[in-house]
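## retry 2 of 3
previous attempt timed out at serialization; input unchanged, resubmitting
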Amino acid sequence: MVQHPALPAAVVFSTLTGMKTRFVVLLTLCNVAALAAGFVYFSQYWGRQTAQERAAAGAEVAAWKARAAAAESPASAPPAVVQVTNAFNWNQVESTDYRQYIDNLRAIGCPESTIKDIVLTDVMRLYAQRLGKYYQNGRAFKFWETNEKRKLKQAQLEEREKQLAAIDKELPAVLRELLGINYERELNKYFVDTDEDNRRLGFLSDDKHGQVLALRDQFEGERERVLRQEQNGKPSPGEIEKLREIEREQDAALSQLLTPEEKDEYELTTSPTADRLRQQLIGFNPTEEEFRALFRRQQAIDAAYQYEDVSDDTVRAAKTSAEQAMMDEFKGQLAPDRVAQLARAQDPDYQNVCILAERFDLPADTAQNLVDMRRAAEEEKRQLLSTKDIPPERVAVALKAIQAETEKAARAALGDQAFAQYSQSAAWIQGLGTN
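## retry succeeded, writing output
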């Protein structure tokens, strides 16, 4: 132990008799000296301990300090509560009942879009497995056997077609019932276009956009449930009335949600009537006003015959007559040149060239040039055949020359790529060379 020399007694007594405050100061200094001596002692002691002993001592000191702090605190802090939850397992969610499966997914907060992806994938996989067995004849694979051994028998082919037809009807109904989605439109999002609805409904606010799509899905589902009950592919009179009531309810719901202008544009943008007109009027290039005028007339006819049996000769003739009267009335509002353009646009060959011209960025008059070219070539052929004093062999040679010259001119007008596609359907060019 380190020895410290004692203070002189005279100094101590002099301080005590002089002033109380000096006594306090001196006492404090003595305590500091004692603490310093203790520190030196324990430093030497701890220096002789092993690392393990120091760690144990440090832990004990820390525990002691913690207990002391707790004892001095006026109110001890409440003990921390640790909540332990059960570990999540997917088996807690999955179910062989898809409705329950969907409810379970919603219960754990799974987003609706993710639920749709999960269930759609699972259902499609199940139907693919069901379909797969109808593409195999059941014969074990043997590498030395040629391919005809694994072809389906006629009875198997017939059974496959039967099953395919059943699945084509069943699968859309299942997905509509489970997820409220249109099967064909949903597939288009994966393989064709995932943004079609946004483009068509871009004139609506985000809020109305979502509500309109929800209404569409709702009423589509109601119509499909009615049509699934039909026999022989034809709805009964009672089912037709139900379908018409659904149409009225949907129209009322849209009228309540949308302004008259928005509802009008919604119909012009999304209705089957408008889609069909956009196809039928290729080559006419209608203005907005012309399209609206024709759409209203066609929409009224389509509504009147929507659930009629157009395979019936009487019904088909009545609808054709109504459409002809509609077209005559529409033509009466057009200038003569527009009437001629509308008549020309009814020619499938002209429409085909219009599509190719748009695809390959050809001049605007390309389709008309092809029409004129065809008319001239066919007239030349007619005159040649009407001349009786030309030997048959010379007629055959001349016809081949007309064909070759027309093909050359058409290729020059369209370009090699467009002509290669056009020639696949332009049988009239080959017809020029035959008698």
